[in-house]
Amino acid sequence: xxxxxxxxxxxxxxxxxxxxxxxxxxxxxxxxxxxxxxxxxxxxxxxxxxxxxxxxxxxxxxxxxxxxxxxxxxxxxxxxxxxxxxxxxxxxxxxxxxxxxxxxxxxxxxxxxxxxxxxxxxxxxxxxxxxxxxxxxxxxxxxxxxxxxxxxxxxxxxxxxxxxxxxxxxxxxxxxxxxxxxxxxxxx
Length: 188
Ligand code: GRF
Known about the structure:
Helix 1 (13-23) runs parallel beside helix 2 (41-48), helix 1 (13-23) packs parallel to helix 7 and helix 6 crosses helix 7 (163-187). Helices cover 39% and strands 23% of the residues. The relative contact order is 0.16. It has a seven-stranded mixed beta sheet, with helices on one face. By secondary structure, the chain is α/β, with parallel strands linked by helices. Bound molecules: 5-O-phosphono-beta-D-ribofuranosylamine (GRF). 5-O-phosphono-beta-D-ribofuranosylamine (GRF) is lined by residues 8, 10-15, 42, 82-83, 103-105, 174.
């Protein structure tokens, strides 16, 4: 049984989707959900599904061993970032080489890097009048959004689309594709 950790900082819509897809499987399970924000929605999704939910504060995350210890305690094989807003340090990357996946709500390398998350991404896409946006699923290294790209999926944008409309289209791609890309990558 392959054991996943899901790391997130927000509402956890991606985490909930992954949790629900894993419930249908016998080969991959979500071993732990880790969040840096007390009370974030992602923690409720874990608890509602009987999955250990651990809060590691931003301050505690400054010591990478605090995260590595929790991951090892839960015998994690792969790490999935689903809206985790802190950078993953080199220590964690070395402890889990090529075993950390992230989803970014844009078509990297554009609209990536520090500070480019959530609505900031969709606003930048909107400001630049892009005709397409989408998602990028990639391996994580110690630089924001720069690991090898695994898959990208695009959505066509209309001139009338607001940043909120763009976010809606991008989130639909996340829900449609993130779990299956995770499973394919892990089982390769
Ligand atoms: C999603 O937009 C995802 O692409 C990005 O962070 C957001 C997470 O949203 N990495 P949620 O917490 O899964 O709802």
